[in-house]
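hiii, so i know i said id send this last week but things got crazy w the move. better late than never?? heres the sequnce for the chain we talked about at the cafe, plus the structure i predicted for it. fair warning i was half asleep when i ran it
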Amino acid sequence: MAWARRQGHPRYPWPEVPIGAWRAALGRIEEVTRALLAGEQAALPVPDRPAARALGVAAFTSGMGPLLGLNAAAGELHLEGERADELTAVLAAHLVHGRARAARIHGELTRASRVLAAAGIRPLVIKAGHTARVYFPEPGTRPAADLDLVVEPATWELAEAALNEAGYTRRRGQRRPPRSEWLAPGAGTASGSRLRSLELCHVDDPCPLDLHASLDRDFFGVRTVRLPSPRRPFRELGLSASSEGSIPSPSGQPSRQGRVATAPSPAGETPPTAPTVDVLEQPALLLLHLLHASEGLHGLTLVRLVELVLMARRDRASGALDDAGALALLEESGAARFVYPALTLAERLAGGTFPPALLEAAAREATPRMLRLFQGMSPAHAQRPTRSSLAESFMWCATPGEWVGRALHMALPAPAGSLPALARLYGERATRVLRGRVGLGG
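okay and structure toks below
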């Protein structure tokens, strides 16, 4: 990580894999993903060790490792070449850790929802905590770095107090939109908050709880997109009401971070009923994920585009997602410009997923700079862990006021939080400038 910061690309800590090789591997993963989404058999050549290494890193950074591991195990993805066995083992490890981490996140959701329920609060589960269980073949195939819960603004302070009293550790927070990050009881120690792997989403990697008081998406000082929150109970989640237990780790030993601290029931008594959580209804669900995926190119991963495709396909087919309703919400919220990146790239990955009217509405509102940036861009190569151009930073801006707002946000970004954090951020920016990672072009 220190090496990556010195090189000016803190999000790319793999010195033995040239960035060009990583990008080429991402392109090959995009090709097989496109075939798998089309219901076709896919083949992935692994000719030598450098290719296997680059593909392993690309599987991790794209978020596709566990899903490709499942496809390989099911015989839908064929790995070919001298190093096929090596990559097969890597993808299998992604899947094993993905499954164990999904069980751990499920336990964390059970614990947090009980804490909030005791305070009279029923949370809204957003992002992977919901979608992994509904739209993916199994929860472990959608990696997640954290658990996101939303509470009503009026209960924000009560929710924070309940988490604090239950032993959660508040790590950081921001005011606009209201959000705070919490570590579960026992995870606030040095070992509990340490990253375990740079090869896969490890079961014992930190799993913070992100508590939100709003669905608003702040586009870096340009505009805040406000979303409605139509809710429905999420009984499909099946929150476990079992007593204290531990989640097996990929090594077969209990995971240190996976314990679910719930009081055991006296002998002969039925465990308490698990609390109910809510999820978003369509079309607000689709719009939230489009906005979240579009916010920054550094996080526009292939798995997020696959998530959008799977969601749109399933809910359009079932009638849960109405095309006219989606278009109306897009226009009512003023979000058309801001969903353009993810919507366009997801459609390029799986053509015919979204209705033409939705695509045209987003393209009409996109700025000229956005249209130029995304012209011909492939889904795999939208992710930018190695550079950030001024063209990308200001692509949202359509008016002079928005340019000013974006510049002010860059000068004093809200997520920095503190003066030391702001100083570190400016240090990283200076390093990228000195190493030529920031340019004027797209």
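btw Confidence is low (pLDDT under 50) at residues 239-272, 437-442. thought thatd interest u
miss u guys!!
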